[in-house]
UniProtKB/TrEMBL annotation, chain A:
Name the record gives this protein: Mediator of RNA polymerase II transcription subunit 20
One Gene Ontology cellular component annotation held by this UniProt entry: mediator complex
Pfam families: Med20
Extent of the signal sequence: none
Subunit details: Component of the Mediator complex.
Record carries keyword Hydrolase: no
Protein family: Belongs to the Mediator complex subunit 20 family.
PANTHER family in the record: MEDIATOR OF RNA POLYMERASE II TRANSCRIPTION SUBUNIT 20 (PTHR12465:SF0), UBIQUITIN SPECIFIC PROTEASE HOMOLOG 49 (PTHR12465)
Automatic annotation (TrEMBL), chain B:
Top-level taxonomic group: Eukaryota
UniProt function note: Component of the Mediator complex, a coactivator involved in the regulated transcription of nearly all RNA polymerase II-dependent genes. Mediator functions as a bridge to convey information from gene-specific regulatory proteins to the basal RNA polymerase II transcription machinery. Mediator is recruited to promoters by direct interactions with regulatory proteins and serves as a scaffold for the assembly of a functional preinitiation complex with RNA polymerase II and the general transcription factors.
Cell compartments where the protein resides: Nucleus
InterPro entries: Mediator_Med18
The keyword Isomerase appears for this protein: no
Species of provenance: Biomphalaria glabrata
Protein name per UniProt: Mediator of RNA polymerase II transcription subunit 18
Quaternary structure (record): Component of the Mediator complex.
One BP annotation, GO: termination of RNA polymerase II transcription
Designated gene of the protein: LOC106067913
Length: 205, 217
């Protein structure tokens, strides 16, 4: 486990997502990345009902941490628990219910390149393609400020100037010890952006 | 509950149930019971295994509560080992006792244990849970096969949340004795094994099944 940065990679107009993913994958293989399996990060929203203040609970999973479940509230408070936490949620049905069509995931190939792990994921929201997320992890360090320059170099050779500065949610925590929950918060931020974009382009009937 | 395509083997764990028998013993007679248990249980040659847990119970319920809604209130017991600060915190959900068969030798109820990070108390409160009560449980732990025996004393906290021992007040002059097994659904044989084990502790303690709902009446 090390420091991870997650970026959205835009799909140029007129190109298909699958094609752009393929180009990125080729690029990773060219610089020496070796495919090591696949990965999924998923997220589902639960809405509070009947409580005085409406609350949203986001439940995330990551194949990199297969025995864990990450629960995030609106304030950003993150609980890391066993995957059995899902079982607890089923007992809370009267208070928190899964929002229909909120399930979003980033899925794709996982590459190893020396000390780096690179993941190129296609994001799908209830089955339809929404965009691309690129994650780069530098395994030997747990302090972001100490390895950011190294990561930036690799990131820029892959996705260019999008990786000019560290991801916004990481910026405040550059000197803290990095935890897997920080990776999940980055994914959640991107997932929320994709959801908002989807809601704007398809107004509810 | 199927939520993702992730690690299905970890997600679809069969529902667990707790089989439980309870009793109490006066403080003065505790040591006799401990020695008896040491002789009966595994690891007889090693010293007594002790534990000291802080337990806080959080309840989620509707604001304007009718009787029907009140019965839907969900409570989570959050535990934290005071003698092992490195150990993760723990959420335990315990269902209502199953009515079922009167001839069943033990109480049977749904049970779910989830280890979690230490910010769980703040997290639950932010979710809307309210602190119901808290206490400290300190005592001894034995196991025989998959049966678990605990002999412990319950302490009330004079100030909620403060867990240093100057803040503890014993709730009674007795220790609570519990014999429990957590197992997947439908293993009725366990109840018989537990009953046989309980027989061997008589007449020191008489382990029985208690219906906690009746205690409120």
């Amino acid at each position: 486990m090390g420091v991870s940065c997650v970026y959205m990679y835009p799909v140029p107009e007129g190109r298909s997502g699958a094609h752009v993913v393929e180009v990125l994958q080729k690029q990773v293989e060219t610089i020496g990345g070796v495919k090591m399996g696949s990965f999924v990060v998923d997220c589902e929203s639960y809405l509070s009902i009947m409580l005085s203040v409406s609350k949203t609970l986001q439940i995330l999973h990551n194949t990199e941490y297969p025995a864990s479940c990450f629960a995030v509230l609106d304030s950003g408070a993150t609980l890391v628990a066993d995957t059995l936490f899902n079982g607890l949620l089923s007992h809370l049905k009267a208070y928190y219910q899964a929002r229909k069509g909120s399930k979003i995931e980033s899925k794709g190939n996982r590459y190893q390149l020396a000390d780096f792990v690179i993941k190129i994921g296609s994001v799908t929201l209830s089955g339809s393609f929404k965009g691309i997320l690129v994650e780069v992890e530098y395994c030997p360090s747990v302090i972001a400020s100490e390895c950011w320059n190294l990561m930036k170099e690799l990131l820029q050779s892959l996705i260019g100037n999008i990786a000019e500065s560290p991801p916004p949610s990481l910026k405040m925590k550059m000197d803290e010890i990095y935890t897997p929950a920080m990776t999940m918060l980055q994914y959640l931020e991107h997932f929320n952006n994709f959801r908002k974009a989807a809601a704007v382009s398809q107004p509810p009937r | 509950m199927e939520t993702t395509s992730l690690a299905p083997s970890l997600k679809n764990i069969a529902p667990q149930q707790e089989y439980l028998l309870q009793a109490s013993i006066l403080d003065a007679n505790r040591d006799v019971l401990l020695h008896r248990l040491r002789g009966l249980c595994d690891n007889a040659e090693s010293n007594f295994e002790t534990f000291a847990d802080y337990e806080a119970v959080y309840v989620l319920s509707f604001l304007e509560s009718s009787a029907v809604q009140q019965s839907q209130a969900v409570s989570f017991r959050v535990r934290h080992a005071l003698d092992d600060p490195e150990a993760p915190d723990h959420i335990r959900y315990i269902g209502q006792a199953e009515l079922g068969d009167r001839a069943r030798p033990t109480l049977v109820r749904a049970c779910l244990d989830v280890a979690c990070s230490s910010n769980v108390r703040e997290f639950l409160q932010e979710m809307g849970f309210k602190l119901d009560y808290d206490c400290v449980m300190k005592g001894y732990f034995f196991h025989k096969g998959r049966m678990k025996v605990t002999v412990y004393k319950i302490f009330r906290l004079l100030q909620p949340g403060k867990t240093d021992s100057s803040n503890w007040e014993p709730l009674s002059m007795s220790h609570l004795v519990e014999l429990s097994v957590v197992a997947p659904l439908g293993q009725e044989q366990i109840g018989e094994d537990m009953k046989n084990f309980a027989e061997q502790l008589k007449p020191l303690v008489v382990l029985e099944k208690f219906d906690h709902r009746r205690l409120h009446n």
